[in-house]
Amino acid sequence: MTTTSTAAPLIRVDDDLSALPQEAWNGLLASSPLPSPFMRLEYLRAMQASGSAVAKTGWQAQFLSVWEGEELLAACPAYLKSHSYGEYVFDWAWADAYQRHGLDYYPKLLVAVPFTPVPGSRLLARNDEARAWLVKGLRALTQRLELSSVHVLFGDPKDQAALAEDGWLPRQQVQFHWTGDGTPRSFADYLQTLQREKRKKIQQEQRKVAEAGIRFEALRGRAITQEDWDFFYECYTLTYLAHRNKPYLKRDFFARMAADLPEQWLMFVARDEQGERVAASLVAIDEGQRAAYGRYWGATRYIPNLHFDACYYQPLAWCLANGWQRFEGGAQGEHKMARGLLPVSTHSSHWLAHPQFREAVAEFLAQEGDAMGEYIDELERHQPFKAGGAGTA
To answer: Which Pfam families does the UniProt record give (predicted)?
Structure first.
């Protein structure tokens, strides 16, 4: 643990997450503009304790916290990164440009939830003043360690405002989310709000899965057994291996989720006609926000259209039946629009130490931002719903 004095209050930097107070951290999260289960300290600790997000894998914890005596005023998850994997806001071109000019881009400082591109509050703070101290702490740590840059990914509007006031560069991207009005209804009723061609395609895809003898069961919270988690992890690992990659998350991470945050998880398990499990998808859920977040999936054998059913239709049907109001399908993927998930802007903020590179990146982001705005406008002109439907009728 190290400390950085900035007069008052005290700004602390911890590399051991067990040193941070869980109740106080989660209290700040609960009162934040956009809380999510991924910012709970239990989730972040599990990333570290399981060996999933540690210095060896390129995620060296440098969590910042702001204190007035024994009172926690603000905090954020920060990591020294030796690469840009697992972030979903791409800066590889910036790193290449630094390298071509004989400069080191890595390590950099990153404020984010590892491997989790879900928008939400990042700078947890009791008030705006405490949030501003946190921003100062990030800049001070970056300068003290002589880092190239610091980045805050998928932050909420208050995060963005505090960082913009400090001169950080804003960046806009897009994801695809479904939102409802909280009225419970059937998936069949929902399909009636879609344009005919979109509705027929989904019905055909689901029919083919059903004709293959596949049936789904939804397991929530403590109803998910260790055997279920073991099978899910097998599927999760197979998905990465199919793309010739190693999985980011260790099995122990999910064991910790089952023990520490069981009610934050919903699992869909697909079985064939013999009752054998063939696929699983995992969705994080937040009762308070009435929101669900598609996270991981995998299958032990290929079945056409099973991915769409397990990852989109089953979770969406569950949200509709239970009157939940938001389903986030994860990063990227225009194909999600055909399933009723609409474009939503997401935001990140960046501070670069090198003046000339900062100027170049600012120009790039301005051009990218204009293009992204046009892209989102174009997407919105191709909504999958009937006129006036919007998926909530």
So the answer is: FemAB_like (PF04339)
Same domain, 13 and 48: yes
Q: Which of 74, 33, 26 is nearest to 289 (CA)?
A: 33
Residue 389 has pLDDT above 70, yes or no: no
CATH code at 186?
3.40.630.30
β-sheet bridge partners, residue 125: 74
Cβ burial 172-184 (10 Å sphere, 16+ → b, else e): bbbbbbbbbeeee
Q: Which residues of 144-166 are buried (b: 16+ CB within 10 A; e: fewer)?
A: eeebbbbbbbbbbebbbebbeee
- Please enumerate in sequence order all residues whose Cβ is within 8 A of that of 59, keeping only pairs 6 or more positions apart, or say none: 47, 53, 79, 80, 81, 86, 114
Q: 80: which strand partners?
A: 60, 109
d(CA 122, CA 63): 11
- Residue 393 pLDDT exceeds 50: no
Q: By CB neighbour count within 10 A (0-12 exposed, 13-18 middle, 19+ buried), where does 296 fall?
A: buried
Interior angle at CA 54, CA 116 and CA 153, nearest 5: 35
Residue with tokens 């991207």: 173
Q: How many domains does the chain have?
A: 2
pTM attached to this predicted model: 0.94
